[in-house]
Specification:
By secondary structure, the protein is of the alpha+beta class. The protein is built from three helices and four strands.
Length: 134
């Protein structure tokens, strides 16, 4: 079945799908092996544009950033060129986002990178900040 491109950004979506040959470009980022031959080698997801999946129905691939962590918000992704976008099926895309959210939850709460408590001088302190020679 032929899948029509979206109303907005049709040229960009078509370019991404042409590069991907209308096939999901996931190579295991979702956590699945994508190994239908059971050769224990990582392969591309076999889902194609217009396929029918039991839980999803008709598959329409989406154009998503290749770097979903740094370019995942819609404002940034809408400005990307076709070479920085990847075609992904909805199950793979959702699994990648779930893995990112789980990794973010595991990050420590404190902001150790910008922790300046060691350099704090109380206003009532007799110490002076080292500002260099005047």
């Amino acid at each position: 079945m032929t899948v029509r491109p979206p109303l907005v950004g049709a040229a960009l979506w078509t370019a991404v799908m042409k590069t991907a040959e209308d096939r999901c470009e996931c190579r295991g980022a979702c956590g699945k092996k994508h190994d239908p031959d059971r050769t224990r080698q990582q392969q591309r997801c076999p889902v194609r544009n217009g396929d029918h999946l039991s839980r999803v129905g008709l598959v329409v691939l989406i154009a998503t950033p290749r770097d979903p962590i740094n370019e995942g918000d819609f404002a940034t992704a809408a400005q990307l060129p076709a070479k920085r976008l990847a075609a992904m099926c909805r199950p793979c895309h959702d699994a990648v986002l779930r893995k990112i959210r789980a990794a973010v939850k595991k990050l420590p709460v404190g902001d150790e990178l910008f922790d300046s408590s060691a350099y704090y001088v109380a206003p009532s302190s007799k110490k002076q900040a080292d500002v260099g020679a005047a």
